[in-house]
Structure formats: C-alpha cells, structure tokens
Amino acid sequence: MEKLIQQGKIRGWGLCNDNAYGLTACTRTAKGLGTTPPCSIQGDFSLIDRKSEENGVAEAASPYNENVGFMAYNALAGGMLTGKYIDVPAALDNLRDKSRARKSLEQPRGRMDTRGWGGTLYRYRSNAAQAAIREYARIASKHHMSLTELAHRWCNQDHWSRRHWSATRACSNSMRASNS
C-alpha cells in the first residue's frame, strides 16, 4: 500500500469488517514499519446490527485511539429497513406462498429476494430482527417519516460512539430499490 501511495496511485487505504484488535494491530504495525496506516475502516452497522459499537471498533477508530475514519455500510440492513419485506417476506422465507416466493426470486425486490445475498444475510430476517423492524416502522410512521429515513437518520445522529465517524454509505442496486 505504501508503494501505491508513494506513486500517487492511491491517497490512502482502509480495512473492512475487522475488529478492534485487528484495526489496532494493523495501525500500530504500519506505524512501526514507518508506512502509512489505514485511514478508514468500513463496518456493517444499522438499527438492527450494532456490533461496531459493541465490539469496540468505534472506540478503537476514534481520534483518541487510532484516529481512523469509520464508514458504516448496510444502514438499511440489506433492504430490510426499507419496509418492503414487512408484508411480503423475502423469497427464501416465504414458505406459505410458494408462488409469491417464486415470483420474488424471478423479479427480486432487492437482495433479500436472491439466492446469493438472501441466503447469507439471514441475521436481518430473524424473528427478533423482524419484530424490531416492525416496531421501527411504527416509530417512523408516528413521526411522519419512512422507515428508510429513520434508519439513515439514526446512523447519522450525533451519538457519543459515532461522533467521529466519517460516513454512512447509502447503497442500493437501483433507485426503485432505494425508494421502496
């Protein structure tokens, strides 16, 4: 990475999905070698996935420790926090209506309706996650906003553990997906 920085090909580099120990070890190793340490770490973070706060990554990344920018990704929990799976479950979970499940696989509403991502992101579709999502949808409605807006606002709020975060990545595979 240092060679790429010296050649001007990149300005910095970062980590993804690491823990506090990995971030600290990587940063300290780079500094010990006299090379450029990581400038960012990207981690999964949403209303229903707060492990970046819970496992110490947010604290390790803070300016008081490693001074590495944190970028939250998956703020919509794979589309679950858009609300589009509340009434009609994800294709792989729709055991009662197999024809609807087939239709969802053929014309996916988002990644939860695909065999690849849908199978790997089950943690967002657990019974506990679904109950939380319904409650968050109720709270959003009470405050005249969409579930999507609530999820993004929550990730970006000024909270002690997120005060020094760099960004929240908002990604979708289409405008239709992000607006539903």
Low-confidence stretches: none
Distance between the termini: 39 Å
Basic shape? elongated
Q: Beta-strand percentage?
A: 5-15%
Architecture blueprint of SSEs:
Blueprint: H1 2-6, E1 14-16, H2 20-33, E2 40-44, H3 51-54, H4 57-61, E3 69-73, H5 98-106, H6 115-120, H7 127-142, H8 147-156, E4 167-168, H9 175-179
Parallel strand pairs: 1-2, 2-3, 3-4
Task: Give an overview in words.
The chain has a four-stranded parallel beta sheet with strand order 1-2-3-4, with helices on one face. α7 (127-142) crosses α8 (147-156). It is of the alpha/beta class. 27% of the residues are buried. It is built from nine helices and four strands; from the N terminus they run αβαβααβααααβα.
What's the quick description here?
By secondary structure, the chain is an alpha/beta fold. Helix content is 41%, strand content 8%.
Primary descriptors:
single chain, 180 residues, alpha/beta
